[in-house]
Every structure is written in C-alpha cells, then in structure tokens.
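If you are new to this repository, start here. Below is one unmodified record pulled from the training split, so you can see the exact layout before writing a loader.
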Amino acid sequence: MVHISRRHVLASAAAAGTTAWLSTPTATAAGQPAAGQPAAGEPGPPAGLTGHEPVTVRWLEDGTPPELAAGTTWGVPWPRGALSPEQEFALVTESGTAVPVQSWPTGWWPDGSVKWTAHAVSNAHPHTGTYRLGPGEATPPDTPVTVARDHRRTTVDTGAMTVVFRHSGEHLVESIQRGGTVIAEKGRLIASRQDSPGTDLPATVRGQVFTSSVDRVTVEQEGPVRAVVKVEGRHKGKRRAWLPFTLRFYLYAGSEALRVVHTFVYDGDESKDFVNGLGVRFDVPMRGAPHDRHIRLAGQGEGVLSEAVRPLTGLRRDPGASVRADQVAGRATADPSTWDQRVTSRLPYIPAFGDYSLHQLSAHGFDIHKRTSAGHSWLRVDGGGRARGLGYVGSPAGGLAFGMRNFWQLHPTELEITGAATDTAQATVWLWSPRAGAMDLRFYHDGLGQEEYPEQLEGLEITYEDYEPGFGTPYGVARTTELTFWALEATPTAERFSALADANATPPLLVSGPEHNHAAGVFGAWSPVDRSTAAKDELEENLAFMHRFYVEEVDQRSWYGFWDYGDVMHSYDGDRHTWRYDIGGYAWDNSELSTDLLLWYHYLRTGEAAAFRFAEAMTRHTGEVDMYHLGEWRGLGTRHGVMHWADSAKQVRISNAGYKRFLYFLTADERIGDVLHDLVDADRTFLVLDPGRKLAEEPFDPDPEALPMGKSTDWGAMGLAWLTEWERGGDPTARTKLLNGAASIAALPNGWAQGGATTYNLRDGRFTGPSEPSVSIGSLSSVFGLMELMTELLQLTDDEQVRAQWVRFCRLYNATADEQRAETGSSWGSLNLRQAYSRATAYAAVQLEDPALAARAWRELRTGHAGYPEDHPFRSVRVEGPAVLNPVNEAPLSTNASAQYGLAVIQCLALVGDHL
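And here is the target side for that same chain:
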C-alpha cells in the first residue's frame, strides 16, 4: 500500500505541523501594522527564531528597466516561524552593492511570526537584474524622504522634489517644486456631467462642472525610502458635492516622480447624471520664449511626438542648423540676435500652438490635434494605434511629464495641454475624455414586463438573467486608475521620454519566484510547474493553453474600456462565433466560479509576467466595478450579466476577498487593502437583502442573531475576508467570527452538508441548526473559494472536529449514494461539477493518507463531469470572414469550466501529483 503523508497537503515545509488558533497584532491608526503580539494568555512567537536565508527577487518583466517610475513596492512571503515581527531586511544587488530599502510586515502567522513583508526601493538606486533580500540591517538612503505637517499643509521632500499637499479646499497639491522652482501647482480633480445622453438627441442638454474638495489628508507612511499621502474628498459644484474620491500619492527617496492611485465612486442617478469628463489637472508655469517651450506625446512602440509651441523648422527662412537642432532636441536655443535676422525680425508672425490633445477613444486608435488657442480650429497632427499614455509640457528650465497607466485599455482617455503659449499651461490627464460621449450607465432594457417574482424566475429560465426592478443600478460602483507625474529639470530627450512612457505604461515590479513562494506555504494547495512526466506535461500544456487563449481573447474580442477592462466573458455562442455578450447572465463573467483564483494560481505556479498582469487587471476590475462601495449593498458583488452591475443577485461570493488578497500581499497595494477591510463587515448586508427572497414563502424579517446566510458559498466568501483581516492584524472580531463559524458548522450533525433551517448570528459568527442529521447540498457550495479557505484554515488549527467534518465533506461529495447514506443518512442526490470536486477528493486523500482516494480523484478529473474530459481538444481553430466581423481563433472553452478545471488540475497536482 502506497503511503500518502499529510505533509503533502501543501507540499511545503509550512504544512508539516499544526498550531493552535491564536491572535495576531492589531493595526496602528496610521495604517501600518504593529509588531506581532499574541493575545493575553496565548503563546507568543516561537523562541529562538533562526531567521531565513536571503531570497532572490527579480524584475517581473525580463531585463533591467531603464526607468522605475517613482520606485517600486513588492511583497514577499516567509515560512511560519522563520522571522520575528521586529526583523529588519537588507537588499543587495548581484554584485553585492547595498540598496536602500524600506520594509514592513503586512501579514502574520498565528504564532506571531511574520508571514508577509512589503519592501520599497526608489528609482534612484542602482539597477540590476536580480537582488538578494534577507534578514539584515537596512541601508538608509543618502537623502531620505521627509514629511512635515502643520494644520494647513503636509510637505514631502524626496531630495529631488518637494510636494505640498493642502488639507482643505480645491487643490489637492499646492505645488511641486524642484530646486526651488515651481514645476507644477494647483493640482486638482475635475469632472463634468450632463442631464441627458447625447445619443438620445435631446432638444437641450444642461451641464455642470465640478472640481475637487478635500475632506481629509492622512500620512500613511513617512519614509525613509517611501512616503504615502492619502487624500479623500468629493467633487464639488455650486449646489452639489458628489463622486467621492480617494487618492494616494507615493513619493520615493531621491525620485523626481509622483505616483498616484486614483479611485472614485459613482453615487449619481444614472437616469440624469451622465458623466462626460473626469480628469486630473495641474497648472504648469511656462518659462522662456514660445520657441523654447516643448511638447512631448508618447505614441505606440517607441514613438514620440516632439514639437515646440512655436516651430522654427520648416519655415521659409532658416534660423540656422544649430537653432533647429536645439529646438528639435528640446534644448534652449541661442539668443535670437545670433540667428538669421530674416527669422528673428518676423518671430511674432509664426503661430504659437499652445493647445495639444492626444485622445484615445477606442482601443484601436488615437489621434493628436493641436490649435493656437481656444476659439480657433484644431489641426490634425497625426494618429496611431495604442498610445502609451504619457505627455510633457515645459522648457529647458523644467517641466511636467504626466501620464496614465493602461491608457488605451481604459479608453476613452485623453492627454490635454492648454495655454502653453501663455504664462501658465494646464496639463490634464482625462480618465474619461470630454471628446467621447457621456457615460451611459442606464439599464439596457425596460424590464420586459418582469415586475413580479414569477415573471423574473421565468426570465431566468430563458436568458439566465436574474432581473428585478431597481437592482440594475451602478450607484456605489467604483474605478481605480494609476497615474504618474514627473517633475523634470529639463525637457527630456525623445529616448528618455520613451523610457518614461514605458515605465508609465508598465510600472516595473520586483517579485520572488514560485519556488520561494511555494516553500513559504502561502495560499493553500498549489505547486510550481512540473513537467517531469508525460502525464504531468499534458496537464501543464492544457493549463498553459487555456491561459494563453484567454490572454489573446481579450485582444481579439477587444475586451477593453473604462468599465470593462479586466473582465472576461462567461459563455460562448458557437452559432455566431462570439461570446454571449448580449444574453442575460451569460455575458460578463464577474468572477463566477472563481476565474480570479485560477489566474492568480497560474501566476504563482509560473511566475510569468503576462500571468501577473492579467490577474492584476482582473482584480482591479472585479474589486471596483463588480461590487458596491456605497449604499445599503456596500460589500456585495453583482452576479454575471450583460452589464457588470445589472443582475439582481447581489452576493458576497462575487465581492469575495479571496480573489483580491493575492494582489494585496504580492504588492502591498493600499487601495486593495481598503477593499479587503471593507469586506470584513459584508455580513451585515444580510440584514437588508434576503438572498432567497424570490423563493421565500414568508416576509423577510431579519433577526441579527438568526440570519439566513449560507454556510458554504456565503460563509466561504466571508471567511476569506475574515482570514485576510486576521492575517493582516486587523479587527480581532474577524478572527472570532471565522473560528466560531468553522466550529459551529462542524458541530452540525452533517457539517457543511447539513440540511434544514440553519441560521447565522451576526454578533459572533456562529451557526445554529437542527440536531438531527439531514442533507442539503448544492454543487456551487465550494467553488467560490470555500475549498481554498479550508485548506488554508486547517493549516492554522488543531481542532479535530473541524478537520474531520471538512474531510468527510470532501470525501463524500463524489462518493456513491450508498456511501453517502451510510454516513449522513441520505443520498446527496445528482450533484453537478464533479470534476471540480476532484480536488476535494484529493484533499481527503492526503488528510486520510488514502491512496484509493488519490486514484479516485484522478479518475474524477479525467472523466470531466461538467468540465473537460481527458480527451477534450485543447486547441483552437481559425474562423475567417465573412462568417465573423474580424478573424478569430476559436476554442471549445467556457469560462466556468475553465476556471474549475484549472483549479482542479492545479490542486490535484499539488496534493496527489505523485499518484497521477
């Protein structure tokens, strides 16, 4: 008999032991976690921590980046018991040169040892291909970031520039200075709305303009390498304040760049609040004559448009070769008295083009226009495919580069420069270009007569859309955008400007590799790519094909746009050779069946840059657009549908924290941290919205101590939020609810399969149910993160009742009806998604050390029930016109099946790969 050790459960050192459920530290008021301290009466960190060998970190994208934008921040996991909360870290280059680094813990193991750390380096440090990070004394920067505050302002000095933030008023940023010279000032947000969409051709359209109004400024970090300033407020007009925003400004030691993460929440009435402009604007003082003022706009590839406000090339009279060369290069020209005087005497007659616009109104093309000033015609300059999203306005004495990440992916966007021929130019990054039509967020149909529940249930039967009047509202959805501003001491060369554009488009990121991350024992059951046998190689090839197909599908189907980028479609229509973008619940995926999890595990296993960027974009989208951040549904996500917020099923399984925690721990991104923290209290939504209202026989009368929250799908999503808050050292109530929930479910006669009326206590997280065994189980119960939650949770507990009940659930889901009856009193019925649950069987095999279960898991995977059987064709075929609008590669994949097949393969390989 082949022996399977429980140690295979994670295939890592961290899985070998179990530990009591302990508490972890609380966070400080400033948002930085305190050192780990167990609760009173509980064991502390293990004595005699031995530290950990240095780990290699590398750039996510191959090669050493020529520019790092402002700097970079990344996360690294550590095995349980390896590092104490007080551990310092040192970073060195390949050659051993020390690099200034700022480090802080972001997650803890239950024993108080450090689980995750975050690290920040500036763009002023030496560049190399890889670095070594490990315990040691951190090297301080030559010029650390400093922060000074009074009751009106916060001033941050990086050594290369000084940024002043206002605590109130319109201007978020009072000024950006370099060497005492003001490069930019009066940084503010701008927005505009109209009361009707232009597409309806209304007789009149009334508009309103808004600008930022600061409510609160918080310093979240103060250096020495990185400072973070958080600014919160609303867009304010004459009679209204709305569109709440949160901006974080990141400043790094020695850096001339300012990174900004911009989040706004839509809180309007979609029937009359049509946003037609949303942007960030700075005033830029202009110095020198118009012919010494320069414009730079980045195009596609390495392309750069380099022009002067008043051109000296191409004239009828020649000022001189050196003059022309200096202007084209962005250098100061010689005194005009040294030029050909036929040019000098006629300078006032050369038009000065003070306004420029690069607008990307679709994913497939941008246009550049310019004009002399307002009131005059725009001239078309040029165009192209996909602009990298960076502009510049200034002179040889200094200027501002301003840009937006994912510029063409998040269209309609625009970079605009106005007034460059005057004393003050304005540089604007338009997140939503005024040149595009206004946002139209209205529901896409009139309800089709589905006023009552019976009609709505009938509609669900035909289009799979769960419709309900008033539920298709965008009120409370959000969008986050990343921007970068550089305070440059001179007009950059075209080559350097192109490098800045690349850093803006794809900010370089340091990462630790799959082997280290796996050995640290984080994120449950997964293992690095293994092609050591033909059988494993075939499965790895299937996973690689699926991932490659979806990455390419985003582009060939043009899944781009302000509200759409980051999501994928749910189901395919083979007759039309297109995804079912217009069919009810079959359109946008909205995290259905854990697509996000598959993408993150694919990255963890491969370490591929494309995998990280794909998962990152999805997390940014699903964590903002697919869930509510305001209102009574705050913390709930929206089920898959034609519009991201259209379906009436509002669920915690979609807003699921488990889909977002990867990005947080791998990058220490504070915005994702905010979202994760907000989700801790999403169980309160069960007081205002009954998930089973369309099938209920009694009026909804919620009791906080007996709520109708599901103990599998719902609890699994909530459990991942509580687990993450516990890991991060947050509110201890999260830990209490997580542990109470697991223990009380396990105490039910049939645990997670128990039928009858079970209820949830909002106050302490406990479930109450019948004392007699019965069964009620659905196929969706564990495919929204519950299996992944329990794998991680059982690392952290020695509660044998919880372990035994969960293992029994995993073993019985795909068992025979006779086996189910023998142990639970009844058959579990004809359950779906049996391939997906092969990983549950594999988990039980490890826990029970049962080779027969391991073999059964592989049979279940190969059979492919509700997924992909062993002989499924993982290949695509080409479909050309006129059968399709554009030629496409078509493959027999559905997103639900792909997500669950992929997760099953990954976890079966990690758990029982030796029995394949």
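Two things worth knowing about this chain: Residues 1-50 have pLDDT under 50 and may be disordered. The longest strand covers residues 207-222.
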